[in-house]
Specification:
This protein has about 300 residues and is mainly beta. It contains three helices and 17 strands.
Length: about 300
């Protein structure tokens, strides 16, 4: 019986990983604070140096479950230019990849309240897949995968970011090129290509009192040849000291999160996300996400 349960879990992880290949970049519950990853125009929009660390762990306790670590650095240079660096290490089932990106932004002051940023992203991705792991779990594969070699591929991206004291709007394509990577269809793995991801995000602040505000956020993710993903998030900010909120990714997951300002220049956050569907009873589908931000 234990063997059957373990096999069911493995198959579930396999199928979930296959579905994850349709949307190949990790989703973040703290997407509002990880905008550099999605949009190079966001780089340098803070008043000073910004450093962000993130950790996202899905299906904790299951070997091979998706994990992502991220590090983001951004700062303004002069009066018009912003620079940034983003690093993501992502592991899902048999795939491992590390993405390094350099961001450049330039802004124009539209009026006293609005500023628009234009950004360019230059990146490189190290991608590797342990195809022998497919045989371990009985997944079929194309014969060409037997001699699969790791890949190091360059990429480019672009974005636009509109900033106001009370709202923001972001539109970006962080990776325009589509290099080779593994894909899965009907239980068989084959060599396919990465898919272009486009992101549209926005938010508005509603002031409820002298020290309380409601932040309404949303993000739309478009992946070529895949269903569009929609996400909405509501955050209650208390005196810019403590933030509590919840998010919903349509037909995918429900999440809760909080953000605490430990001291001036240091914020710490945690989010828990639960998948909307639970094909296997007793299997923890929860996703844990930790967030830290330093402002200098």
């Amino acid at each position: 019986m234990t063997r059957i349960i373990n096999l069911s879990i493995i198959l579930f992880v396999l199928l979930s990983a296959g579905m994850g290949w349709s949307q190949q970049d990790p989703n973040y519950t703290f997407y509002r604070y990880n905008m550099n990853i999605y949009n190079p125009a966001y780089a340098g929009n803070s008043e000073g140096v910004e450093f962000v660390l993130g950790l996202r762990s899905q299906w904790a306790g299951i070997e091979g479950a998706p994990e992502s670590q991220s590090a983001i650095f951004g700062m303004p240079v002069g009066k018009k230019v912003g620079l940034g660096v983003s690093i993501i290490n992502d592991k899902t089932f048999i795939e491992t990849q590390t993405w390094l990106a350099l961001d450049f932004s330039y802004h124009i002051q539209l009026n006293d309240a609005n500023r628009i940023y234009f950004g360019l992203k230059a990146s490189a991705n190290s991608y590797d897949a342990n195809t022998q792991g497919l045989l371990t779990y009985g997944v079929g594969q194309d014969g060409s995968l037997m001699n699969f070699e790791s890949r190091f591929t360059p990429n480019v991206g672009a974005g636009v970011y509109l900033k106001n004291e009370r709202y923001f709007l972001s539109l970006s394509v962080p990776k325009i090129l589509t290099p080779d990577r593994l894909q899965e269809t009907n239980g068989n793995a084959f060599l396919g290509s990465d898919r272009m991801h486009a992101y549209l995000a926005g938010g508005y602040d509603f002031f409820l009192g002298a020290k309380t505000k409601l932040q309404a956020l949303g993000m739309v993710r478009y992946v070529d040849a895949s269903p569009i993903s929609y996400e909405i998030t509501g955050l209650l900010d208390f005196a810019e000291r403590f933030t509590l909120g919840a998010g919903y990714r349509f037909n995918e997951s429900l999440s809760g999160l909080f953000l605490f300002k430990v001291s001036n220049g240091f914020e710490l956050g945690y989010a828990y996300e639960s998948a909307w569907q639970r094909p296997i009873d007793g299997l923890d589908q929860g996703t844990h996400e930790v967030f830290m931000r330093f402002l200098l």
